[in-house]
């Protein structure tokens, strides 16, 4: 199995991640990957194709598809498109988990040929996803309340119209392969400011250190330390871009041992020092 784990960090101040698909200019392919979050692709213009378990689901303007938690998928966008992507943490649905800690959603794109099943009308969900994007980015008066109202409307529709009451045994089994790592990475995202060690994490979740190390390399394609640094850097970068906190404060707030270690890691990843980013921000004010 050759696929990578995608680290998802919510947008600042909200419990979800919302953005325009990075393959909007076409000539784009995203290889097989997976993540814990539930994901919605809503195509506004053009078209692209999602691949789930190697089955192709072409999407045209006005169509959407729901990618379930731990579902291995890839994307191909050969032509220009405008697609809104909404990523929702799995824990948002925890009150609706089955006894197997499992929840699955359907969408019209995945149900062609299922004449015996009620197919949900995607237009309403697509409208709310687009409206959520517009309101969130326009930042008008009271947009915070409207943003969360639209978000909860989306969650409501997903539970009412898209949740599957039963799932095949093989689907649950396939999800279980990645669920163990999902629990661990979720814990790491909640405790990344702490001094997390591989040995301690292994003991906490009932694995040997060697087994947990192999699990990261197999399903995340990086080692434990690199994954932890990915989380810390993602949050630190967001804080650097969206606050006036000092670099030293940002480093310590996000689990780095020192300002120097933060700056070294930042430069390695972004080819620029955080102090240069800070100066550029000040110059634009």
TrEMBL record:
Domain spans labelled HTH araC/xylS-type: 182-280
Gene3D superfamilies recorded: Homeodomain-like, Jelly Rolls
Entry's transmembrane regions: none
InterPro entries reported in the protein's UniProt record: AraC-bd, Homeodomain-like_sf, HTH-like, HTH_AraC, RmlC-like_jellyroll
Keyword Transcription regulation attached: yes
Presence of keyword Transcription regulation: yes
Record keywords, A-Z: DNA-binding, Transcription, Transcription regulation
PANTHER family the record matches: ARAC-FAMILY TRANSCRIPTIONAL REGULATOR (PTHR43280), HTH-TYPE TRANSCRIPTIONAL REGULATOR EXSA (PTHR43280:SF2)
UniProt-recorded name of the protein: AraC family transcriptional regulator
């Amino acid at each position: 199995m050759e696929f990578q784990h995608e680290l998802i960090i919510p947008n600042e101040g909200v419990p979800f991640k919302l953005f325009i698909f990075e393959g909007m200019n076409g000539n784009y392919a995203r290889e097989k990957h997976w993540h814990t979050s539930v994901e919605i692709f809503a195509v506004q213009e053009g078209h692209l194709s999602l691949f789930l378990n190697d089955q192709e689901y072409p999407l045209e303007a006005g169509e959407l598809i729901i990618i379930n938690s731990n579902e291995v998928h890839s994307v191909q966008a050969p032509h220009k498109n405008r697609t809104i992507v909404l990523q929702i943490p799995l824990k948002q649905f925890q009150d609706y988990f089955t006894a197997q800690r499992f929840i699955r959603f359907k969408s019209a794109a995945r149900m062609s040929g299922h004449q015996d099943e009620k197919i949900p009308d995607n237009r309403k969900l697509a409208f709310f996803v687009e409206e959520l994007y517009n309101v969130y980015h326009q930042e008008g008066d009271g947009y915070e309340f409207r943003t969360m109202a639209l978000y909860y409307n989306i969650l409501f529709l997903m539970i009412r119209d898209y949740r599957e009451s039963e799932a095949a045994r093989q689907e649950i089994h396939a999800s279980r392969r990645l669920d163990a790592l999902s629990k661990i990475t979720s814990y790491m995202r909640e405790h990344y400011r702490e001094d997390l060690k591989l040995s301690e994490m292994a003991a906490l979740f009932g694995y040997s250190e060697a087994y947990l190390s192999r699990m990261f390399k197999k399903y995340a394609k990086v080692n434990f330390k690199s994954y932890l640094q990915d989380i810390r850097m993602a949050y630190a970068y967001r804080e650097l871009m969206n606050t006036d906190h000092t670099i030293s404060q940002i480093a310590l707030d996000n689990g780095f041992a020192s300002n120097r270690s933060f700056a070294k890691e930042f430069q390695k990843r972004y080819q620029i020092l955080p102090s240069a980013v800070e100066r550029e921000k000040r110059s634009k004010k």
